[in-house]
Structure formats: C-alpha cells, structure tokens
Amino acid sequence: MHRARWFLLHALLLAVVAMLACGCSYSMHEYQAAGYAPATQTSGLPREAVWIHAHSNQGVVLGVTDNTDYVDEAYQRLLARCPGDIVAVNTRYSTKLGFLSYKNTVEIQAFCLQ
C-alpha cells in the first residue's frame, strides 16, 4: 500500500511539472509598416525626427476578456506622445500563450516630426 501511494504521488508531481513546463509559447502574428511617403514639407528648416513607442496588452483567460480595445489604447498613447506629425508607423501584433490563457500585445513605433 505504501509503495502504491509513493508511485501515485510521484506520477502526479511529474504530471504537474510537465503541464507547467510545456504550456508556454510565443508567436508574432503580423508586422505592418506604413507611412513611408516622401516628405511633403521641403521648404524651411528640416524638422527633427524622434522615435516614439507605445504598447498595450489584452489578457485572455479561458477565451474570456473584457479589454477589446487594446489596439486603440496603444494608438491613443502614441498620438499623445507627439505634438507634431507622425510618420513611418511600424506595428507588431504578438501573442504569448500560457496554460489556459494567453496575452495579446500590440507594439507601435513611429517617427515624430517636430
């Protein structure tokens, strides 16, 4: 009886460790680049270009989430960081998978012309 209990305990422990160790992965779904048109303002002093960055996350557990506007949040954060024109927008969508859950992330980088 003692040996059967020992075997069952170790088998359960091994199953839990295997489940936790193998349950995570990472995937980049899409990368978009836009806004690389020629400069329209060519007269006067050249404007300074500064990289700006914004990101936002969406947590999902068992397929349920309450944050469906995480991309809009990231875009609004990007707009708030630049008083001038925003050009050369690069957007990356990715997902980090976990055990019975995942996290969607959007990262936006662009040049702010001041």
Strand content: 35-45%
Choose one word for the global shape: rod-shaped
Strand/helix succession: HEEHEE
**Biggest sheet details:** 4 strands, antiparallel
Lateral strand order in the biggest sheet: 1-3-4-2
Please mark out the parts with pLDDT under 50 across 5 or more consecutive residues, or reply none. none
Backbone CA Rg: 23 Å
Q: Specify the oligomeric state.
A: single chain
Distance, first to last CA = 77 Å
Helix content: 25-40%
Structural overview:
The chain has helices at about 1-20, 70-80; strands at about 25-35, 50-60, 85-100, 100-114. The mean pLDDT is about 85. A hairpin with a 2-residue loop joins strand 3 (about 85-100) and strand 4 (about 100-114). The relative contact order is 0.26. It has one domain. It has about 110 residues and is α+β, with helices and mostly antiparallel strands. The chain has 2 helices and 4 strands, in the order H-E-E-H-E-E. Strands 1-3-4-2 form a 4-stranded antiparallel sheet, with helices on one face.
Compact summary:
The protein has 114 residues and is of the alpha+beta class. The chain is built from 2 helices and 4 strands; from the N terminus they run αββαββ. The protein has one domain (24-37, 46-113).
Descriptive labels:
114 residues, alpha+beta, 2 helices, 27% helix, four-stranded antiparallel sheet
Helices and strands in order:
Elements: H1 2-21, E1 25-34, E2 49-61, H2 70-80, E3 85-98, E4 101-113
Antiparallel strand pairs: 1-3, 2-4, 3-4
